[in-house]
Design a protein that fits this description.
heterodimer; A: alpha+beta; Sufe protein. Chain: A; GMP Synthetase, Chain A, domain 3; 2 domains; 7 helices; 36% helix; 24% strand; globular; B: alpha/beta; Aspartate Aminotransferase, domain 1; Aspartate Aminotransferase, domain 2; seven-stranded mixed sheet; four-stranded antiparallel sheet; 13 strands; 41% helix
Chain lengths: 211, 391
């Protein structure tokens, strides 16, 4: 039989590691939603003496790459310090899985972010976070680095698809260098909105495409 | 013993029936001339006879005359020719408005979108929760500018069969042409052009165990249709290109081999699968109408889990099915059909389409449901959704 995934992806898909919930976890996060197609919950327990992750679990509503990335990310995170865990990238997770198809990048990046958000959640709850800063073009750009370009398997910023970002009275306008009827236009638009909307001072997200 | 792999995606493609291959074989090795050579040498005459014979048989299946049926490269081309051909013929003369349903398959939907770019207006009709077009809304949507209504005979994903007789009557009353995509109903659900007022019909061989790359278009006599594929004078000067004689012969043989009995048997297997899944697997919902649906189609949404994961697990167990999940599609968008019937993202992502054919047995499908129950249970155990309810 032939499958569109590597042996390691299939192995983690069939037998995902560290599945489940941690009751009263020290840090937790949910990334994605049923609307965007995939959703991952990540739970961590932290050893406060060493600031390392002592236990990590995940749950996934998603496709094979989403499940496999959730599984591998728990293996990569266990025993790491909080700072190390936050720095784990999608590329590292993907390499640990023996590679993922480019078009699947957007489903698998969620688990990586889930881990990062769970660590941030822990930091917030333990008074380790900086103050609320107003959203800037740089903040938006940083978030857009988490939106994958399904054609390249790299993010929108790195593949030069972001033509313009401007922020006015709580409205963030992002111009993407693709025609509005492009194969992936509506999927990309949905993901951008999903990433920018939660920013505390953003009221509206407008995604425009070039002709 | 299980006949592995069990292929349950017969709406996408079917296994060729050996008897069809045998019927086609001589037209690859012995009579490989094309029909346009009939005045050149005797092989051309034999080719012409084979093509005419196939055409006659296919037209007869629809209750049509042979000169009302042309061969194409498949249903995608047929629907493109129907929409763009009518638009080209009538756009300047009569008007620039076309009506389609929201849940059409991509050849019709994207042909309509292409016409929009050429300055045509398109109405995309809503459907109800079973997938039916509202006949009153259709009637209201037709204007003096309307040239064509294109509404499918049955849906490619959820199987709902439209009331094309009454749709046709409305179109006739309003003096508007009516095209229907019958890719999935052809030979499985009766369609007689003497009884149903339809002007253009898309059909294909690939759904009935015939060869890929062979389809047809019924064109009622007198229908305004501009030539879309230019070249020679083939197919009554409506569609140029070398005649695919093995394909035409194979298509006719495919139609000959479909029997009412077989269709009833397929429907029995299908009904068995639907009742077992709905009864044995909790949190499932049937998409499409319970009985006004294609006899070979079942489409069920499994809550709290995603379709690509289900299909991959099933594939590992030897079952091939399809899903309306965004993760499966080339555009990363969930099924427009499930959204069209009012379903949400979760219902689209968790939808699985099972389409049955000649080679599926009750034993196969029993094995399928058993495996499916396991797979669904496993995936739900790792999903964060749907847990609150059970706790």
């Amino acid at each position: 039989m032939r499958f569109p995934y590597s042996e390691t992806v299939l192995e983690h898909f069939r037998h995902p590691r560290n599945v489940g919930k941690i009751e009263n976890a020290d840090g937790k996060a949910i990334e994605g939603s049923p609307a965007c197609g995939d959703m991952v919950s990540v739970y961590i327990n932290v050893d406060p003496k060493t600031n390392t992750i002592s236990d990590v679990k995940f749950e996934s509503y998603g496709c094979a790459s989403n499940i496999a990335t959730g599984s591998i990310i728990t293996e990569l995170a266990k025993g790491k310090t909080l700072d190390e865990a936050k720095k784990i990238t999608w590329k590292e997770a993907s390499e640990a899985l023996g590679g993922l198809p480019k078009i699947k990048a957007h489903c698998s990046v969620l688990a990586v972010e889930g881990l990062r958000s769970a660590v941030e959640n822990y930091e917030e709850r333990h008074g380790l976070v900086k103050d609320r800063k107003p959203t800037t073009v740089e903040t938006v750009r940083r978030r857009l680095k988490k939106v994958m370009n399904p054609m390249a398997g790299l993010d929108l910023v790195r593949t030069n698809l972001v033509r313009d970002i401007n922020i006015k009275n709580g409205t963030v306008r992002v111009v993407i260098d693709l025609p509005p009827d492009h194969q992936f236009a509506s999927a990309i638009k949905e993901e951008i909105t999903e990433k920018i909307e939660p920013l505390w001072d953003v009221k509206e997200v407008v995604v425009e495409f070039t002709e | 013993m299980l006949n592995r792999p069990v292929y349950l995606d017969n709406a996408a493609a079917t296994r060729l029936d050996e008897r069809i291959l045998e019927a086609m074989r001589p037209y690859f090795f012995d009579i490989y001339a094309v029909a346009t050579s009939e005045f050149g040498y005797s092989q051309g005459i034999e080719a012409r006879e084979a093509l005419d014979g196939a055409r006659e048989a296919l037209a007869a299946t629809l209750g049509a005359a042979p000169e009302e049926f042309i061969f194409t490269s498949g249903s995608t081309e047929s629907s493109n020719v129907a929409l763009k051909g009518v638009a080209l013929a009538l756009g300047k003369k009569k008007g620039k408005h076309v009506i389609v349903s929201k849940i059409e398959d991509f050849p019709v939907l994207n042909s309509a979108r292409a016409l929009e770019k050429q300055g045509f207006q398109v109405t995309y009709l809503d459907v109800d929760s079973d997938g039916f077009v509202d006949l009153d809304k259709l009637r209201e949507s037709i204007t003096n500018e309307t040239i064509l209504v294109s509404i499918q005979h049955a849906n490619q994903e959820i199987g709902t069969i439209q009331d094309i007789k009454n749709i046709g009557l409305i179109c006739r009353e309003k003096g508007v042409l009516f095209h229907t995509d019958a890719t999935h109903t052809f030979t499985r659900v009766p369609l007689d052009v003497k009884k149903i007022p339809v002007d253009l019909i898309t059909v294909s061989a690939h759904t009935i165990h015939g060869p890929k790359g062979t389809g047809g278009l019924y064109i009622r006599k007198g229908t305004s249709l501009a030539k879309w594929v230019d070249g020679g004078f083939q197919e009554f000067d409506l569609r140029a290109g070398l005649e695919n004689i093995p394909g035409a012969v194979g298509f006719a043989k495919a139609v000959e081999l479909v029997t009412t009995q077989e269709t009833e048997q397929i429907q029995l297997v299908r009904d068995h699968v639907i009742s077992r899944i709905l009864a044995e697997i909790p949190d499932t919902v049937l998409n499409g109408h319970r009985w006004k649906r294609l006899p070979q189609n079942a489409n069920i949404s499994f809550h709290f889990i995603e379709g690509e994961s289900i299909t991959l697990h099933l594939d590992m167990h030897g079952f091939a099915v399809s899903t309306g999940s965004a993760c499966f599609s080339r555009s990363l968008e969930g099924s427009h059909v499930i959204f069209g019937i009012g379903g949400d993202h979760e219902r689209a992502h968790g939808s699985i389409r099972f389409t049955f054919g000649r080679y599926n047995t009750i034993e196969d499908t029993n094995a399928l449901v058993n495996t499916l129950a396991e797979v669904v249970r496993e995936l739900r155990s790792i999903s964060p959704l749907g847990k609150e309810k059970k706790e």
